[in-house]
Amino acid sequence: MISNSDERLVIKPKSPQPNKIKLHEASLSRYMIIGVLVSLLLITGYTLMHLDAAGVRINDAVRGLMMTLNQMFLQPSAGSDGMVLLLQALGISLLLSIMTTVIGAVIGFILAVLASKNLTNAYLGSGIRTAMAVVRAIPTIIWVLIFSIVCGLGTNAAILGLSFHSVAYLTKAYSESIEEIDQSTIEALKVTGSKFWVIVFQAIWPTIIASLVSWTFIRLEINFANAVAVGAAAGAGGIGYQLFVASGMSFDFHEVGMIVYLIIAVTLLLEFIAVKLRKAYIVK
Amino acid sequence: MQTPVNYLARKHWKQTGIIALIGGIYLLSSYVLKFDGLGGVIAIPKAFAWLGINFRPTANSTQYLPSIWQKLLGTVMLAIASTVVASIIAIFVAILGSKVTGGNSIIQTIVRGIASFFRNIPLVAWAMILLFSFKQSDFTGFLALLLMSVGYLIRAFMEIIEDEASETMLALKATGASYFQVIFQAVIPQIMPSLISWILYMIENNVRDATLVGILTGTGIGFVFDIYYKSFRFDAAGMTVLSIIIVVIVLELLSNQIRKVIL
Amino acid sequence: MLEVKHLEKSYQKDKPALTDINFSVEPGTFVAIIGPSGAGKTTILRSLNQLIKDDGGQILLDGGDIRTANKTQLRHYRRQIGMVFQNYNLVERLTVIENVLHGRLGYKSTLAGVFGRYTEEEKQEALTLLKKVGLEEFALQRCSDLSGGQKQRVGIARSLIQHPKIILCDEPIASLDPASSQTVMQLLKDLTTEFNIICIANLHQIGLAKDYADRIIGIRHGKMVFDEDADTLSEEILETLYDQNATEELG
Known about the structure:
The structure holds 3 protein chains of 3 kinds. Chain A has a domain at 82-94 and 103-283: MetI-like (MetI-like fold, Orthogonal Bundle). Helix content of chain A is 75%, strand content 0%. Chain A is built from 10 helices and no strands. The two termini of chain A are 54 Å apart. Chain B folds into 2 domains: 4-54; 60-262, MetI-like (MetI-like fold). Helices cover 85% and strands 0% of the residues of chain B. The termini of chain B are far apart. In chain B, 50% of the residues are buried. Chain C folds into 2 domains: 1-80 and 168-251, Rossmann fold, CATH 3.40.50.300; 86-163, no CATH class. Helix content of chain C is 37%, strand content 25%. Chain C has a 6-stranded mixed beta sheet with strand order 6-7-8-3-9-10, with helices on both faces. A 4-stranded antiparallel beta sheet of chain C has the order 2-1-4-5, covered by helices on one side. The two termini of chain C are 36 Å apart. Chains A and B meet through helix 1, helix 2, helix 3, helix 4 and helix 5 of A and helix 1, helix 2, helix 3, helix 4 and helix 5 of B.
């Protein structure tokens, strides 16, 4: 019943060509993909072969890790610090991330408007973009350490450091959204003689609000992770600091587990809100 | 009744409300965190002035360059290796778990759960836990970055597959092609550029994160910076930051060029 | 010959998407299915090659029931049924000829298909088919560089290389400009006669359906409203399909 219905077709290869038929031509993009993949694999191979494991025996280490993970995730407890303190610290980290995101969003939007190719003159734009690229290139943790020399270790340095990186990140993200706007929307308002910032808030803002919200929430998630990180690595307080103390000084992995659960709860909450908000704005 | 007039009025109130909300959040956070806004603003020029004086690499600090660049190169290679291994794991898991190419809904849910779990455990926690078992070594840094990247890449790859490959996948299924033929002839070629774009992005990101992991686990460029910083050799610390800036920006420019060609 | 008997489908309980669809088509016939959006045209078409699992009925291709086929048998049926999509569904990054050859995957071993190994005969046939659809000089171009009409012709070539008994066209011209639409419809009509195959197309445009199809099936609310020769189809019957009053009466 089921048969290859070759016979029913009129077209048959008349004479097989002497040369093989090519399926694709050599193209730059093809070479680039292969080149990138091969070089990445080579670098990886080389790195892995020369990786210094400090003489740790993998079996023992893995067994130790399993034990640690077991303590963390199956027997979490608030430990000597107590739940109240941990929740307070969690609140501080969350507040830190919200505040730095707000600062980043406000300053970032203004800078993004000034940096977008379709809105401003080329010199100002490329100047801001270059400066922001440099700011972004420096890891958040180093920004915090730099500010902590002037402000002293603590939340002030963390706020400044996190804000710096947020501004740079959001400037880039926002200005890319702005540059995607159809030029005619802007021109339509320009011909009415509207002032620059009127155009920005009447035409640009409403057009890109969905992607603004989306990017801002992505940054909020990043900032929360960063707030935890700088708390641990720069002693800037919050839940990250508690995490650092529990895992690096008192070695209470039950408490580490509890802290990780708390952090996961917050990140999941942020993710949930982000998804809901994105849906709400896309529907509109 | 929705009239244009009260629609605009409501919109106006909504805007005012949002501005008030943002201001409120700022003030409340400042109060709770005891953030001195004015002091903070003043601190910025002070910090830069201080940077200008102390972080300025001197003739003397060029002696640190070889060791800085050696560590930096090591860090970049570590970031690449962890990203590549993570992507290899992630692409298999993503194919298993995506709505388009995946198994049944139980497998999909499990994969999503695992990805979310790995992604949401903070990098700091990974670094510290691994440090405890694997001690102070590059391998610890590699593992921390790997575990973190896997979570991110699984989610990213699943989204790419669902966005970009579902239609072609359907077409090949309709020709009677088998599952693996569809994966290799339709899905992989279709998503390859986005895949590479994400891998490059993750490498850039991992170079930055490697600094953090390095400070915590005592490896790579982060460790070097930490040592100079804590021993007040700020000119060397400045040199380190400068080197990081150069490497990250070069990587970014390079990836942008690659993206332009392959897309 | 394709026979569809008592085909049923509902996506939600008590909300049938298709009820009691019956028709049969002889080889060499070009059938257009028309009807308002959401009437169930796509559901019918995708049931025919089981991309959508229907709920009941029979779909017989030369007497064998596609609905009850097991996995391997289904693949064997599917390779005899070509499909052309509204959005072409090509692998945009691959070349035109590679996309055409995808139509051969159903006939190949898994491994040969995975690595994209095709015989010279298959490649030659792909070129011949590309010539037939007027794209032979584009064989080595990437599909992303083609226009919509050209992409659709690649899609048609891809279905032809399957040596199909049926070609299903899901809104084949909905994304095309009028001139390209004419070209594609003419091509489908010619191929139907030349290869003596069954071609079933979902269409929005009644005019084009009357111009090119041999038979027109009207669908509304998941039910067949008429099944007529394109030549004898009268305006009155057509009106029943879109008439606002009739809709209200039914509701």
